[in-house]
Amino acid sequence: MKKELAEALLAKIMDWTDEEKARERARLETFATYKYDEYQQFSPGRRFIESLALWLEQFDTGAERRTAYDFVCSRLIFFSAGEINHLVELTFPTIIRPKLLETASARSGIPVDRVKAITETLEYRTLHRRTLYLGMSDGARTDWFRRANPLISNEQVFLGYDPSQVKAANMLGKLKKDLTKMTGAEPKDDAALFENVILIDDFTASGTSAIRFDEKEGWDGKIPTIIEALAEPDGLGGCVVKGVKVTIVAYIASDQAINHIEGLLPKLPFEGEICFEVVCRLGAAARLDETRDAPFFALMADDRYFDPEADDEHGKVGKTTKRYGYANGRLPVVLNHNTPNNSVYILWAEDVHTVRGLFPRVSRHRKLQQP
């Protein structure tokens, strides 16, 4: 649909006056150009203003459409590719480097505020090289992380957390070679292994996919899986020292996820140290509130704007309907590459559903469609 036609359709749907049309057109074009047109899951040829017009059309005229439109203008949080990449770039200097400096300061005896002096010590340089970075999902953007930190060896950063035995042996061989150059002597035993592991993920809203515990099933999620792998002598476990320090870093996280993960980590059986850090916290105000956002909650509660098919077997882990987002996330968040299902359903309804989503989500668990 051409841009002019989409704008005319939107003005008709919203029943705007010429003055309102001129004002809102400028605002929407700014939204679309600056961020929303880059959403990767729009169908071919579609852009934000067309998607907005078609999304608003499904609501009743008048108050419902104004409520939905006001939500988009005042409550929507959209993370562009540039913004997420900036968070990736901030990860090392704001979270990881201070930890390395603190440890190297204690080992070298140099005060922690003498940053340049610490970074020149052998203690810091070897500690820096003995830190392993692993992606926890496709969204970890480990490729961008490598490019943003050229002083980190490519042999320290990996897309996944389950390297093969061949890959594990190769990165240990490179580690030993680099440490030998630094120290002038070949490292032995634990000195030839990684002592820090940094686990990187892009977004967590509930924390349940990262870690969860059930009295019958026990521990589950990506974090327990990795911790278990670190205890195995083959593969990943053979690359790290006993009592390895593990830091989990999320580029973006909600308060719900932070509280969930931090509440379970101390109970997780693990001989080493483990902590959770966040580059960008969404904060309590991001979550939709039944009082503050009452009109929009009324829309979400209307069965006309929810497809029961969205509550599939995978959503049962969240223990609530996805109407208000997986695990009752209640988020108005969209990531440039996809909309998380922790955001409210009316925002991300998939193309296979009876409801139209503003930023349609493509699920990892999409049902097989028969031809």
In short:
The protein is α/β, with parallel strands linked by helices and 371 residues long. It is built from 13 helices and 9 strands.
Kindly describe this structure:
- This protein has 371 residues and is of the alpha/beta class.
- The chain has two domains: 134 residues, no CATH class; 204 residues, no CATH class.
- It has 13 helices and nine strands.
- The strands form three sheets. It has a five-stranded parallel β-sheet with strand order 3-2-4-7-8, with helices on both faces. A two-stranded parallel ribbon has the order 1-9.
- Helix 7 packs antiparallel against helix 9.
- The radius of gyration is 24 Å and the shape is elongated.
- It starts with a helix and ends in a 23-residue tail after the last helix.
- The mean pLDDT is 91.
